[in-house]
Design goal:
The chain is α/β, with parallel strands linked by helices. The chain is 47% helix and 14% strand. The chain contains eleven helices and eleven strands.
Length: 259
């Protein structure tokens, strides 16, 4: 636990300026590639893990498959790993206990299920259960709220206050990338802010200037990998050429990452 707590402290310390930039991995190979690129920590993406398992995100993955993928990611790298556990796979405490056993040092826990927001008081109790289940591990809890994904943002700060009291460390608000809203959230939230970015979002430098604490890309890298697979297959089957694959990783370099 002492070695794992050191990783947890490293992850916690990275939530400062400049912000923690988290590329999201979905398997051991992607995790190793991201570490080799210079990442200080890695987050998993539930969407990527789900797609790699051949199921849909947001309900297609079960705890057993999610923890197996997490264990492979943790085993492939030497940097801190934080796990996307969606809405907790039913029993949040049991899920967190398995996350800790797998070697991860942080979680994302979202407050929606089946496309609807969970009652904020109930979600706060789930965060408290996660904190208790972590035991002596200084688990970094990234409390995701989907108030902007499934609504107009109403109640975001009220949720943030409840989640902070329950033991959350960071507020994750996907669906928000405009500067004005980010400023408003940062001014009112008792927790530092995590935003999810992709093409068209502010740059890391711009988000740093706004004071954002944590920046992640969610399933975007996984989507890019599957996009490359689709484009390469279409090119091969239509024109019989391979130009799309010019951007792919070299076999030898990728193979060496996993030695």
């Amino acid at each position: 636990m002492s070695a794992q707590n050191e990783l947890a402290r490293r992850l916690r310390a990275l939530h400062a300026q400049p912000p923690l930039v988290l590329p999201n991995a979905w398997d051991a190979g992607s995790a190793r590639a991201i570490e080799a690129a210079g990442a200080a920590a890695i987050a998993t993406t539930s969407a990527g893990v789900s797609w790699a398992a051949g199921v849909t995100d947001a309900g297609g993955l079960d705890r057993t498959a999610a923890i197996a993928a997490l264990r492979a990611v943790v085993g492939a790298v030497s940097i801190p790993v934080t796990a996307d556990v969606e809405s907790g796979y039913g029993d949040v405490a049991a899920t967190v206990a398995e996350v800790v056993e797998a070697g991860a040092v942080g979680i994302n826990l979202e407050d929606s299920s089946g496309g609807s927001l969970v009652d904020p008081t109930l979600q706060a109790s789930r965060i408290a259960a996660a904190r208790a289940a972590a035991g002596d591990l200084e688990l970094v809890i990234n409390a995701r709220t989907d108030t902007y994904l499934f609504g107009d943002g109403t109640g975001t700060i009220e949720r943030a206050k409840l989640y902070a009291e329950a033991g959350a460390d960071v507020l994750f608000v996907p669906g928000v990338v405009d500067a004005d809203t980010i400023r408003e959230l940062m001014a009112a939230s008792p927790l530092p802010l995590n935003v999810m970015v992709g093409p068209g979002a502010p740059t890391v430098a711009e988000l740093t200037a706004l004071g954002v604490t944590r920046i992640s890309v969610g399933p975007a890298i996984t989507s890019g990998a599957y996009g490359l697979a689709t484009a390469a297959a279409k090119e091969l089957l239509s024109t019989g050429t391979y130009e799309v694959l010019a951007t792919a990783a070299e076999f030898g370099k990728l193979n060496d990452l996993l030695r």
